[in-house]
């Protein structure tokens, strides 16, 4: 992978729908040469796919929060009941059953601290949660191309 491939990947990471002609114009290649490089990057497994990122999936683009919430369940709440209770909460992205002092680690995306407060109250009121500990992500990791 050379400098041009890295530039092409950067453009596609910004906008995966960018045309070959636009990419080529930006990196100084013809449309056909650009298309050939993108197809090679796909064939080599450097580009694994293309996706749509919605506002819900990327609150950091709207100034939202990504949080990690350690959850301890009430002694009377079983794991299946908890998982069923949080299933309809769209802000919760992941729920991982953990070892240690907490039962679950939740990852949630929220628009602001008021929404975080409402989520924590809901977990404690309706989902069998007795204790939480919340950490706020300060920034998202920057993706780096995989070396060959």
Automatic annotation (TrEMBL):
One of its GO terms (biological process) is response to amino acid. The lineage of its organism: Bacteria, Bacillati, Actinomycetota, Actinomycetes, Micromonosporales. InterPro entries: AsnC-type_HTH_dom, Dimeric_a/b-barrel, Tscrpt_reg_AsnC-like, Tscrpt_reg_AsnC/Lrp_C, Tscrpt_reg_HTH_AsnC-type_CS, WH-like_DNA-bd_sf, WH_DNA-bd_sf. Gene3D superfamilies: 3.30.70.920, Winged helix-like DNA-binding domain superfamily/Winged helix DNA-binding domain. GO terms for molecular function: sequence-specific DNA binding. This is AsnC family transcriptional regulator. The keyword Iron does not apply. Keywords: DNA-binding, Transcription, Transcription regulation. Residues 1-66 form the HTH asnC-type domain. GO terms for cellular component: cytosol. It comes from the Bacteria. PROSITE patterns: HTH_ASNC_1, HTH_ASNC_2.
């Amino acid at each position: 992978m050379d400098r041009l491939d890295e530039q092409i990947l950067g453009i596609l990471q910004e906008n995966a729908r960018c045309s070959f002609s636009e990419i080529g114009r930006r990196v100084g290649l013809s449309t056909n040469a650009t298309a050939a490089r993108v197809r090679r990057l796909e064939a080599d497994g450097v580009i694994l796919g293309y996706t749509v990122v919605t506002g819900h999936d990327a609150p950091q683009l709207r100034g939202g929060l990504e949080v990690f919430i350690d959850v301890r369940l009430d002694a009377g709440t079983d794991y299946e009941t908890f998982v069923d209770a949080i299933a309809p909460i769209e802000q919760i992205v992941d729920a991982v059953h953990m070892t240690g002092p907490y039962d679950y680690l939740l990852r949630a995306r929220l628009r602001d601290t008021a929404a975080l407060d409402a989520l924590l109250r809901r977990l404690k009121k309706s989902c069998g949660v007795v204790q939480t500990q919340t950490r706020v992500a300060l920034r998202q990791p920057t993706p780096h191309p995989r070396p060959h």
